[in-house]
Structures are given as structure tokens and as C-alpha cells.
Amino acid sequence: MSKSEIYESLSKAIIDGDIELAKKAAEDAVNAGITPTDAIENGLMKGMKIIGEKFSRLEMFLPNVLVAADAMEAAIAVLKPRMMPEELSKIKIGKVVIGTIQGDIHDIGKSIVSIMLSASGFEVFDLGKDVPLFNFVKKADEINADIIAVSALMTTTMEYMRDLILLMKETGVRQKYKVMVGGAPVLPEWAEEIGADGYGKDASEAVGVAKRLLRHKSCGRSHD
User: Fold this and answer.
1) Nearest Cα to 150, choosing from 218, 219, 210, 220?
2) What digits encode the pLDDT tens for the residues 126-151?
3) Which of 83, 124, 148, 187 is least surrounded by Cβ atoms within 10 Å, i.e. has the fewest?
4) Distance between CA atoms of 132 and 150, rounded to whole angstroms?
5) Which of 36, 56, 13, 5 is nearest to 208 (CA)?
6) pTM here?
7) Which residues contact 117 (CB under 8 A, 6 or more apart)?
8) Please, where are the H alpha helices in 144-198?
9) How many other C-beta atoms lie within 10 A of the C-beta of residue 4?
10) Per-residue pLDDT, 49
11) 123 vs 92: CA distance, rounded Å
12) pLDDT at residue 92 is higher than 80
């Protein structure tokens, strides 16, 4: 098989949620001399990106995302032992604390973002739904997070996003963490108004935004 065919098999395994194909394609990648990093970036992640896009268009649903994540884990389990030390250090590219804001019990969208972030190499700490503001900060401090990601599915709870940022300023930790917001009623204008660092309209975009925020953070940029 050519490299492009192996990448296609890896991607298809994720899209179909096919664990056995994911394992076989990962083995094919190893046997073909493809580095684990290339297999992940050019095969597995392309599949996860398609999953996220289809989910945002309601062409796939939560069970599809869950089996895709299982296939991803199966492939990475094959690739991981072949990784060089510098590649292993890149598996977890950052730490994210995520949750649905207090007063809001909707969490399907947040859960999808959590899964996509995990599949993309982030170490994710999902606090669930109806999360008190202080718990976001407490967990971020506890695990030395890079990003706090907050979801709201009701307009009545969106205001708590502003309160979270104010709490972070009052407790002197605003500059330590990047803040991402999202959810059905949340718009880019709202994110800008409350002083958030990033906004994602869906799971795929949220992953891209998280990676961008990490690059900015590594360059020493901080929010006022």
C-alpha cells in the first residue's frame, strides 16, 4: 500500500468507527516506515475532523463520535510504542479544563468538544455540567491547565461566562489561563465583549482555536 492509501485507511477507520481497521491501518503505517506523528496528523486527525464537521451538520450523532474516539485510541495504542521520546512529548500538547457553566444542564455539545480535544492530543479534564465558577479556577490551578473552556446552551446562563472572567481577574489568575467559550447561543461578538480569548462555533473549530491559543501562550502573550 502507498502512503496515501494508508492515510486514507486510517481516516476511514475513524469515520466508520472501525477498531479493527484502525489497528490494521496503524500496523500498515508502521510497516511502511510512516512515523507515528505523520500517521496521526495525516490519517487519524483527518478522520476526526470529518467526524466533527458531520456532527456539526447533524449528519452524525454522539454514538458515532464515541466509536470514532474508540477507534482513534486503538490506532494510537499501536503507534505509541514506536514513538520517539520527542514524539511522545507531543501526544499531550496542552491541558484543558472544560465544562458547562453553572445553571446550565446541557452537555452534549460540550462532551463532543471534549472528545475532539482529547483525540487531538489535549489532556482534557471534563467537569461536566452545571459547574460552579470557582470549580473551573480550582481545577485549572490543581492541574496547571493551559485553557479553560466553557459552554452555555441557554441565553440565561451566558452571563456567568462574564462572571467567570471577572472572578479570574479578582483572584489574580486571569493571565495564567486562556479562556474559550462556545455553545448554541454564544457568538464571536459575545466572546469579545466579555474578554474571552477564543470562540468556537463547533467542535472542529474549537480544536483549531485551542491550538492557536496554545501557540500564543507559548509565545508569552497574555490577556490584560
Assistant:
1) 210
2) 999 999 999 999 999 999 999 999 99
3) 187
4) 11
5) 56
6) 0.75
7) 96, 98, 124, 149, 206, 207, 210
8) 155-170, 188-194
9) 10
10) 84
11) 6
12) no
Residue ranges of alpha helices (H) inside the chain are 3-16, 19-31, 36-39, 45-56, 62-79, 85-91, 108-119, 133-143, 155-170, 188-194, 203-218
> Which residues neighbour 142 within 8 Å (Cβ) at sequence distance 6 or greater?
none
Q: How confident is the model at residue 222, as a pLDDT?
A: 43
| Among 193, 159, 199, residue whose Cα is nearest residue 179 | 199
Burial class (CB in 10 A: 0-12, 13-18, 19+), 30: middle
Q: Are 12 and 71 in contact (CB under 8 A)?
A: no
Distance CA 222, CA 217 (A): 7
| Cβ proximity of 18 and 72 under 8 Å | no
Instruction: Taking each helix axis as running N to C, give the angle between helix 108-119 and helix 62-79, from 0 to 180 degrees, rounded to the nearest 10.
Output: 20
- Cell numbers representing residue 201 in the block: 462555533
Report the distance separating Cα 166 and Cα 168, nearest Å.
5
